[in-house]
Amino acid sequence: GVLPLRSGSQERTSGLRVALLLQDPDDQMVASSVEHELVLSVPLDVDAVTRRTRIAAAIERFELGEFLARNPHRLSGGEKQRLAFATAWLEDPDVLLLDEPLSFLDEVMRERVISFVREMNANGTAVVWATPGGDDVELAQRVMTLRDGRIADRAIPHEPVHDIEVSPRAFQRSARVTFDAVSFSYDKRRVIDEASLVATAGQRILVTGRNGSGKSTLLLLAGGAIAPSSGRITRAVEERGVMYLPQSPERLFFAETVMEEICFGLERRGLSIETARQRAEEALNRVGLDAGHFAQRSPFELSFGEMRRVAFAIASALDPDLLLLDEPATGLDARGRAVLESLVGHAAGRGAAVIVASHERGAALACDRMLELKGGTLFEVADAHTP
Questions:
Q1: DSSP 309
Q2: For the whole model, what pTM was predicted?
Q3: Beta-carbon neighbour count of residue 256 at 10 Å?
Q4: Which of 347, 349, 201 lies closest to 287, judged by CA?
Q5: Residue 312: pLDDT above 90?
Q6: What are phi and psi of 126, to 5 degrees?
Q7: What pairing do the DSSP bridges indicate for beta strands 189-200 and 3-4?
Q8: Which residue(s) pair with 34 in the sheet?
Q9: Which helix (H) or strand (E) holds 347?
Q10: Are strands 95-99 and 126-130 parallel, antiparallel or unpaired?
């Protein structure tokens, strides 16, 4: 889970043990089970008794006991992040480098991780924390801002955020997805328990819940990617179909340029190359990426936030009847969150049924309904219309 950055060159590291947690914890999981991931993270110079004691403490501290035999890549985003932090703690580094470490975590685990980082810092670990902004900045003793390749030892004000102009047209769609007492289980563990749900055209639904509560599973069921263990799901979608953006949509990228990435689905629908390119340029501009600058760039050389916006542009260009977004606010700065809110509003305004899963109740989304998954049960939450 953690990448120990050790070099044979003492001039480079001065004997320090440096650990890095990447923005996406999936990129640094190497073992076939959570338990093996933990074992590999303990330094080799630690004796067997101390090794076992520290691993047991990490399992308890980061609530990993029920996952030990599972493949790390099969965990939820928040569970992977917890595992990544456990491996960092086991590494016992002198310097800890964190790349947006709270992105996938719910409120309870965020507070525990903040406490964990403060404790490590108090015990002598130097911590460098990269963040797009927000409450994370208040945790720092020193703030340095990176902008246009330059570092300033002070905070630089963000550019003002304005809503992206959209012109939703009156819609005549009949998009609808209905859950009738739907249940689903992974390895005999029931994740969704007799859930009932109706999402209709033009409706924005936010599904919240703690990490590992089954939010992603609910979206996969809604989109038809997996079948329920029991119960019934019915969908009424037209030619625009269903679009599901997973927690890390950039993992689905494959084209050489951003333009090709966006045009791929449009051309498969039968649009001409010219029409697809026009739609792609409009979508890029809609999400705040200048088409003249980004269209011919490789999607793999973009920043995390830019890749996320390209995924939003694909969703906007395809204009689906049912739009499913899994933790879409992860890793976004204030501008990116404004883009997300406009995307959701634009899609709903054109008649799509939109379901967003997020551990954040706000999630940069003004919703019509808010639901919470807890213990496999789906509850209606009263305070919708979240700002």
A1: H
A2: 0.68
A3: 12
A4: 347
A5: yes
A6: -80, 135
A7: unpaired
A8: none
A9: helix 334-349
A10: parallel
